[in-house]
Amino acid sequence: MTRHFIAIDQLDDNTLSSIYSLATSPFDDETMKGQGVALIFERPSLRTRASSSSAVYELGGYATFFGDEEIGLDRRESAEDVARTISEMYSIAALRIRQHGVFARMREATNERLSLINLLSDASHPTQAIADVLTIADEFAGGDVTALAGLEVAYVGDATNVTRSLAVALLRLGVNVTVAAPEGYQLSVGGAEDPQAVDGPGALRLTDNAHEAVKGADVVYTDAWVSMGFEEETASRRFDLANFQVNVPLMSLAKEHAILMHCLPAHRGDEVTNEVLDSGQSRVWRQVFHRRSAMIGVLRWIKGES
Fold first, then answer.
1. What is the pTM of this model?
2. pLDDT for position 27
3. Residues of the domain holding 78
4. Number of folded domains that form the chain
5. Which of 48, 86, 173, 207 is the most exposed place for a label (fewest CB within 10 A)?
6. What is the pLDDT of residues 109-151, one digit of tens each?
7. What is the CATH number of the domain that holds 213?
């Protein structure tokens, strides 16, 4: 059966447990010997492209990059025809795309012959969530993902696709998640990767008060206020989110051992200050390290390892 990694909420707990384990356990550098992965990117990337290509290489395979100017999904060529073409030459495609619905269209067009990995869509960012869970486990549980229950994670700012995938993953591990965002930037109900549809064991809380969210938190997480595609809203977003900047006074409300996380790139001086991002509390570079771990785990799972 063809395996896909498209959203955290599409995978059962046993599958997620396997991926977490495969991400950090010893691996065979011939798992993907002679096999290629098509990397299709509608949006620019640094960490996603670097982690994906290096993970494929370390497992013995090779990666081929296709940028937006070459593919032009639904402009130059339909998503269905792109998938049909790729499936004749590759067994796995990893995509960073604008519209989450493209995954379903590609699966149908290829009759499930092509394994798909979501490297980011407008609805979710599941590889980032895997990396983030591994980072939190390193910090608070000696790497044991199963021992995170009861931790308090506060997400502050614009509740993005990153927020959705991260919250779903953490709630299912028994971590309590508080999302602090102003009206218009808070989590929406429904759609793919919906944290509000998760049935415990962690608790989800939504608030419009950053101070309330961060008080007593073990982890403070933030993301860019102006994500790709929203550049024209820069001025209004900075105004609306001004009270949600992660700075030294805000971090002081968290627990003494609290860490800062950010999926990067960071807009220094907007959602986070240099004093916090470059402080001893910051774990952003450990997150970068685990982006590669996450891809290794996903690829090994797709290849049938357990």
1. 0.97
2. 96
3. 8-125+289-302
4. 2
5. 207
6. 999 999 999 999 999 999 999 999 999 999 999 999 999 999 9
7. 3.40.50.1370
